[in-house]
TrEMBL record:
This is Uncharacterized protein. One of its GO terms (cellular component) is cytoplasm. InterPro entries: ARM-like, ARM-type_fold, Exportin-1/Importin-b-like, Importin-beta_N, Importin_beta-like_NTR, TPR_TNPO3_IPO13_2nd. Residues 101-259 form the Exportin-1/Importin-beta-like domain. SUPFAM superfamilies: ARM repeat. Residues 26-84 form the Importin N-terminal domain. It comes from Picea sitchensis. One of its GO terms (biological process) is protein import into nucleus. GO terms for molecular function: small GTPase binding.
Length: 403
């Protein structure tokens, strides 16, 4: 207990003392403390005990960060019994702080995921963790919030650890990711249940939807949808949830990220999203162009360009949906903004479409001729729009915005 109080005092001095020499001394003491074996027990006790500290959970946040770093650097040296006890303690801490503060819950979940990755004696570590998550959800009304956060950082641990950390072998990471993906059906079902739950007692629905989207994005990046039959993906209810999230300003950016990631990885999705292009253009893009909402314009231009790049053959067929996409992107290029960011986001699409049209097989001459007829006015308008933007920006750069 005495050491806990010393830690709490040092954290308070580090963050709030007006004397820089005191802050430096506190920082040095905390750095040395983190390197001791006692830091394991002290940090764990701070997170799991009922003692409360002042200053907005700063001591608890520091303790969670200590455990995360020690697990990442020394977790492989812990005895199996110690790892199991630490898993139980971190799950208890996740339950205790399931309502936040969010940075603290995130650090606890990062520590949990790092621990599971390094628990080599567990033949199926994810299965053991998921059993603990089930108990957390059943025994605590707010457990789903902690589960969402943990499920978000678990795939990130695999990806980030592979890039930045050599303490875990590539074989271990591979087995970990494969076991992680084996739980895809249960994770997707959990996310679907959360997306359909309209009761928000402790957390606003829009905020929870953003958490669901972040979690789904992590799992998409690790390849979760490769684990289900590909013919079921276009009709998956979570896809509708993501698409509908485009309509909400607070979740728009995340929805764009998820859809962009999906389109780049799954060849059946561009056709599905292309069919929704007219409604996307009429319902979101045109109002954004009228009101000057550049966040929406830029996000949609990136998404639509990704759809077109993923399936240039579909666009070259010049269907009404394909022409709607081309027209929408042309409007994005023509939009007069202060920089080229929006227009730039579309250029790779135009290049890939032009290249596809030029490479079309000779034996499909009539089809090629039709495509050229349909898209020649589009590319002419594109050139005009780019020239106009260049002229306008040149005039502004020379004569100023009032010219």
């Amino acid at each position: 207990m005495e050491l806990q109080m010393q830690v709490a005092k040092a954290v308070q001095v580090l963050n709030h003392d007006i004397q820089s020499c005191n802050r430096v001394a506190a920082n040095q003491w905390l750095v040395q403390f983190q390197q001791t074996d006692a830091a394991w027990e002290v940090a764990t006790s701070i997170l799991t005990s009922n003692s409360s500290y002042v200053h907005d959970f700063e001591v608890e946040l520091f303790s969670a960060q200590v455990l995360k770093r020690k697990i990442q650097n020394e977790g492989g040296c812990l005895q199996p019994e110690a790892r199991t006890a630490l898993l139980t303690a971190l799950l208890l801490a996740a339950k205790r702080f399931s309502l936040g503060p969010p940075p603290l819950l995130t650090q606890i979940c990062l520590a949990l995921s790092a621990l599971v990755l390094r628990s080599v004696e567990w033949k199926k570590p994810i299965e053991q963790l998921f059993a603990g998550l089930n108990e957390l959800q059943e025994g605590h009304g707010n457990g789903s919030i902690a589960i969402l956060e943990l499920l978000t950082v678990l795939p990130e641990e695999v990806i980030e650890d592979q890039k930045n950390n050599a303490t875990v072998s590539s074989a271990r990471r591979w087995h970990f990711s494969q076991e992680l993906l084996s739980h895809t059906p249960a994770v997707l079902e959990f996310l679907l249940q959360q997306s359909e739950d309209k009761v928000g007692e402790h957390i606003q629905i829009h905020e929870r939807n953003c958490k669901i989207l972040r979690c789904l994005l992590s799992w998409v990046r690790v390849g979760c949808f490769t684990e289900i039959p590909q013919n079921t993906l276009p009709a998956h209810p979570l896809l509708n949830f993501v698409y509908n999230s485009l309509q909400v300003f607070s979740s728009f950016d995340l929805a764009v990220e998820v859809l962009t990631e999906l389109v780049s990885c799954h060849e059946g999705l561009p056709q599905v999203l292309l069919c929704r292009m007219q409604s996307l253009k009429d319902g979101l893009l045109l109002p954004a162009l009228t009101s000057g909402n550049e966040k929406i314009i830029f996000g949609l231009s990136c998404l639509m360009a990704e759809i077109g790049q993923a399936a240039p053959g579909l666009i070259a067929e010049a269907s009404p949906e394909a022409l709607a996409l081309a027209d929408a992107l042309l409007r994005c290029v023509s939009y007069q903004s202060d920089d080229w960011e929006i227009a730039d986001s579309t250029l790779q699409f135009w290049c890939s479409l032009a290249g596809y049209l030029l490479r079309m097989e000779f034996e499909r001459g009539s089809h090629k001729h039709m495509a050229f007829v349909m898209f020649s006015p589009v590319f002419t308008a594109l050139l005009d729009a780019l020239l106009l933007r260049a002229q306008v920006l040149f005039i502004i750069s020379v004569f100023g915005t009032n010219s």
